[in-house]
Amino acid sequence: MSKTMAKLPYxxxxxxxxxxxxxQKRLIKHNSDACRFIYNEMNGMNRELFMLKQVKxxxxxxxxRIETLEQRLKRxxxxxxxxxxxxxxxxxxxxxxxxxxxxxxxxxxxxxxVHQSGVPVFHKRKTEQKYQTSCMYASKLNVANMxxxxxxxIDKRHLQLPKLGTMRxxxxxxxxxxxxxxxxxxxxxISMDATGRYYxxxxxxxxxxxxxxxxxxQSPVGIDLNTDxxxxxxxxxxxxxxxxxxxxxxxxxxxxxxxxxxxLRAKKEQRPLRNAxxxxxxxxxxxxxxxxxxxRRNNFLHLVSTTLIKNHxxxxxxxxxxxxxxxxxALAMSIAHVGWRTLLGMLSYKAKLYSRQFVTINPRNxxxxxxxxxxxxxxxxxxxxTLNDRDWTCPKCGVHHIRDWNAAxxxxxxxxxxxxxx
Length: 422
Prior knowledge:
Blueprint: E1 10-19, H1 22-52, H2 60-74, H3 76-83, H4 94-114, E2 129-134, E3 152-153, E4 158-161, E5 165-170, H5 174-178, E6 183-192, E7 198-206, E8 220-225, E9 231-233, E10 238-239, H6 244-268, H7 277-311, E11 314-318, H8 322-325, H9 332-338, H10 340-353, E12 357-361, E13 391-393, E14 400-402, H11 403-421
Parallel strand pairs: 8-11, 11-12
Antiparallel strand pairs: 1-5, 1-7, 2-6, 3-4, 4-5, 6-7, 8-9, 9-10, 13-14
């Protein structure tokens, strides 16, 4: 009996671009709409149930409705399908329904743990399409892998998906394809972005690691993230900020103004935007510009994060609160488009992948503190450093500091102290 995804020690994700036929595109849209409908139906029943329970009078019709809703929410797959018969269409993937229900329940669990993103809300119909299915294996299989499940690779250019059939794809890494016989597939996401490109994302698990882990000597590093340069590490290395968004800001603004004019004209002529060909053509152009910027930024962040994790056994960074920092409207655009939060997320999961340590610390006074003597600017009659002060001299010990390099050293020291107390 093969192990389940949860019992396998190493996990990985891979996203490939697929090229569906016209019929397959129709099925993807049908499943995506059904997935959104089931999620919204569960959300609607829960909201109605909450409102009905606020009624304190024992009205019979209210009590009956509460019992009905509770029964449907216990078994939503059959409860919703029995009312809405179109959900029994043979074109719909039954595992899509199970994943939609599971995602709604997961959203509630996340709300109970975090209490920041709020309660689950209704999903609006958008240009993008997405739904999830699961890779199922026969119970008698000794080894579950990428070539014998309901989601499977046929060869290096084709894969099989439930209800969709065979589909051509590209982009799978050679190291993953070479290990297809000892790697298991879990949840699979089929999606279409705003530009009309289709993708399949697969969760993979295996008994062996997906990357080569090099055992290096102790080489801790602290990194200071800033808007002037992208980051400066405690060794004095500086990574410049590529500013991808600013490079196309003017072109994007011009395209968005044109999109707005076409939307206004379509509304004046009382034509739905989904049927306005000129509007849709311009919308795809705007989405393409945004996708190119996002791809370039993500590629840059992957290169930086992988280099840091591979070359250092410990990486220490500031625990930045981007939501709070965006309140500074003078720097909001620079902060939003630099991708700090994304970088920290990449460092976190890649540290686990490469068996490294990644620690975040409170950034309080990391910039204002002298690394040599510990003097904090703003005390003893001194003024705090501003963003324009790129280098400074400590008034207590007289050591000259490069602002970001000094901050990176302070971040590393705080990280080592934090690890020592654990």
